[in-house]
Design goal:
The chain is of the alpha/beta class. It has one domain: Rossmann fold (3-Layer(aba) Sandwich), CATH 3.40.50. The protein has helices at about 1-5, 20-25, 40-45, 55-65, 80, 95-105, 110-125, 145-155, 165-175, 180-205, 215-220, 220-230, 275-285, 285-295, 305-325; strands spanning about 10-15, 30-35, 135-140, 160-165, 210, 245, 245-250. The strands form two sheets. It has a five-stranded parallel beta sheet, sandwiched between helices. A two-stranded antiparallel ribbon has the order 6-7. A hairpin with a 2-residue loop joins strand 6 (about 245) and strand 7.
């Protein structure tokens, strides 16, 4: 159990980039424990436990790490209300919390042990831990920002960073956040992608794998081979059947797509869903990173945009074009 405690896999990447798909493919593999929901451990839990006692930290963990198992279909808690299809009623929250407390009190070296304990407690109570288990898996968008801290807690950790074509990524993400402009999104996508590239450079390909959503859905067998090689796990049939907590998973597409296997349907959706101006904004702002990740730029039909909008657009985006030219 001590070895498993220090053997995490962190899934990284921008929201709606395909990180949930990757988690679902690993979910039923016999050599990993996959936590069924995001924890926001670094962004939400850690800032709230500074200078707290161990008991208080455990109480806070109840609110931030194990709360997902407080399931009630008749009177759903806040975190369940928007996800009626997710049912963890077969996993007793009291048992998960009791097991987590036992593990933490048995070994607590640093704050990372709190997350490890939550993962292992879930694995023990759900019966997912077996003699073959090598890793536990946590997926939260923007994990890439905390990789230095990840490797300080768990030197043997592995990180998988999924990048998606920013145009498709934006089309999907704006359905959830319509207030995000293409300009704002492109800057955020740049930060996430650059961080992934920097992590790969600093920590090496044996610990940090930067891949793309398109590779996973368009060349699944090749990508699954790379995945099993990176993690040194077997090529199990479960890798081709997406699940969540062991149950069939139909996806969390913002387009209400439903699938039972890896699908390339979402690739290129931006071509019929993104305006010329939004396309141009993303391509100008994210030009360098798109090129480095192998995403081709499309030709913009400027004649379809009225002159006033073109002038305003040129003034607004000029700093990004100049920056690209001098880099």
């Amino acid at each position: 159990m001590a070895i498993l405690r220090d053997s995490p896999i962190f899934i990284c990447g921008h929201p709606k980039a395909g990180t949930s798909l990757l988690r679902s493919l690993l979910d039923s593999h016999p050599e990993v424990i996959v936590y069924p929901e995001e924890t926001g451990f670094f962004r939400r839990y850690l800032p709230n436990v500074l200078d707290k006692t161990l008991e208080k930290k455990l109480d806070i963990a109840d609110r931030y790490l194990t709360h997902i198992f407080e399931w009630n279909q008749n009177n759903p808690p806040e975190h369940q209300q928007n996800f009626p299809d997710r049912d963890y009623s077969n996993i007793p929250v009291s048992e998960v919390r009791d097991e987590m407390r036992r593990l933490v009190k048995e070994t607590f070296r640093h704050e990372g042990d709190m997350l490890s304990a939550a993962m292992l407690a879930f694995g023990i109570v759900s019966g997912k831990i077996n003699s073959r288990t090598k890793y536990w898996v946590e997926k939260t968008p923007y994990n890439e920002r905390y990789v230095e801290q990840i490797f300080s807690y768990w030197p043997d950790a592995r990180c998988i960073h999924v990048v998606r074509d920013p145009r498709d990524n934006y089309v999907s993400y704006r359905k959830k956040h319509p207030d995000w402009t293409a300009k704002f999104f492109a800057n955020n996508w740049n930060l996430s992608t650059r961080q992934g590239m920097e992590n790969l450079k600093n920590f090496g390909a044996e610990r940090y794998w930067l891949t793309t959503f398109e590779e996973f859905v368009q060349q699944p067998e090749k990508c699954l081979k790379n995945l099993t090689d990176f993690l040194n796990i077997s090529d199990d049939p479960s890798l081709r059947q997406p699940t969540r907590a062991g149950l069939e998973w139909k996806g969390n597409s913002m387009w209400s797509d439903r699938f039972s296997q890896i699908s390339a349907t979402p690739v290129g959706r931006w071509t019929s869903s993104l305006s010329p101006m939004d396309t141009a904004a993303i391509q100008i702002i994210a030009s360098r990173e798109m090129k480095r990740m192998g995403y081709n730029q499309s030709v913009i039909d400027w004649k379809s945009i009225n002159l006033v909008d073109r002038i305003r657009f040129a003034v607004e985006l000029l700093p990004y074009k100049v920056k690209e030219l001098i880099q």
